Amino acid sequence: MRKTEGQPLQAEWQRDREVRADDKAVMDDNDKADDKRTIKTDDKRTIIIEYIHRKGEAKTEDLVKLLGSSTTRIKVLLYQLVDEGILVSCGGNRNRTYKLKEQELS
What we know:
- By secondary structure, this protein is mainly α.
- It has 5 helices and 2 strands, in the order ααααββα.
- The chain has a domain at 41-106: Arc Repressor Mutant, subunit A.
- A two-stranded antiparallel sheet has the order 1-2.
């Protein structure tokens, strides 16, 4: 008797797993930043670099809105990119912007 009751539950759990897997797809350009999908760290780094390449520079707040991550998480990613020599930071605390290092040289 338990097996017949368990089978519908297993099918329901499988459907839930499939739905969650679909929800973790990478956001495309049409999705809003407040959409609650998961974006992997490497994808966030790529998005930051591409955004700064298009716009020329970015503030932390711009990237927080774009990615829907916390200010602290975005700052950690930005500091890593600066340490790796990909980005340079310009300005003081509140006015700090980030540019690609190659754009800074030209």
